[in-house]
Specification:
about 80 residues, Large ribosomal subunit protein bL31B, Ribosomal_bL28/bL31-like_sf, Ribosomal_bL31_sf, 2 helices, 4 strands, ribosomal protein, elongated, Ribosomal_bL31_B, four-stranded mixed β-sheet, about 30% strand, alpha+beta
């Protein structure tokens, strides 16, 4: 690799505030905010909106979507299909 052209690859804490979950990993992402980790060291922290602790696929908490209402609205707008003409 060419020296001086790549961003610094260092430990960073990613924090999901909605699930009160954080994990330490290595990344090139930067942040001005820092947090003290369990090992006593201070690391840059990046707040994320969703992680494996809050994502419906991993948690099993699916949102209920009103698909019946959408289908009925579509049928009212465009008809039931080719057979009803």
């Amino acid at each position: 690799m060419k020296p001086g052209i790549h961003p610094a690859y260092r430990p960073v804490v990613f924090r999901d505030r909605s699930a009160d979950f954080a994990f330490l990993t290595r990344s090139t992402a930067t942040s001005d905010k820092t947090v003290e980790w369990r090992d006593g060291n201070s690391y840059p922290v990046i707040d994320v909106e969703i992680s494996s602790a809050s994502h419906p696929f991993y948690t099993g908490n699916q949102r209920v979507v009103d698909t019946a209402g959408r289908v009925e609205r579509f049928e009212r707008r465009y008809g039931r299909g080719r057979g009803d003409r």
